[in-house]
Amino acid sequence: MDLINFRVGQKTISLKILDILLTERYEGDLTSLPNENPSFLGVKDYMGTPTPIFDLGIILNKKSSYDTNNALVELLKNREDEHRQWLQALERSVVKGQDFDKARDPKQCTFGQWLSNFKTENEDLKAILSRFEEPHNRLHALADKLLTLCEQDKKQQAITMLEKERATTYIKLMRLFESAREQISLDHKPIIVFTTQDGQKPHIGLLVDQVEDNIHCEEDEIKSLSEITNIGFEIDPQTKKMMQGLIKRGNTHSVLIDPSSIFRPEHLQGYEPEETESYGLF
Fold first, then answer.
1. Cα 272 to chain centroid, rounded
2. Which residues form the Chemoreceptor zinc-binding domain (predicted)?
3. Which has more confidence, 185 or 127?
4. pTM for the whole thing?
5. Average pLDDT, whole number, for the chain?
6. Which of 44, 54, 66, 98 has a beta carbon 3.0–4.6 Å from 92's, enabling a disulfide?
7. 202-221: per-residue pLDDT in tens?
């Protein structure tokens, strides 16, 4: 069978080409309806057919990619603020003789610990994060150098070195924090995958992060659901119902899903679309 792979958070899911009607950029232009299902985003009319849209990130990861990215951006803002406060504390120690109680080992600060453990499939973000090590290590090494100079009564030399590193190493680190946040925000361009059961009318739409590639898979390459639990899936009834198996190829894997297992909300029966100038329906 021919499949198309999509990225959803840190996971890859596969859909049969015959189950896909089309994909389009998600612009947030959905009609919201009351619903207790947290993955249900709203309804979008596709050529006269009101189509329920579900966030596949919430279904698979318990959290939308939008919220995950926002949390990561906020984390980086906090880590940036911590290093701003770190340098201010060092300056007070050098200039006013105050005790310096911040982390001197770059691997012991909160950001250093996070950086050594964080994993991402975003190659651009990965490249930016790899550039943090040099300025981050250099900034933390500054504490011992400056405080040693102060102990040797070389306060002015320490102040001169501090100002130099503030204009170079520190600025470089701050720009990397900004670049990482921008990459996270700009790279997230979710799309809606309109699925179909008859090849003509849409059944549901699934919100995913991006298209990855297309593959051809034989039936015997699809493993049982029991293997999915070994790669980080906590399978609830709704999720288990839509999963057909695991496709493993070398070190990569994807989960084959059946979108027809997600049923349309009953209240769509009374849904009345609004007219628009584009093609008469919203």
1. 35
2. 83-146
3. 127
4. 0.77
5. 85
6. 98
7. 889 999 998 888 888 887 77
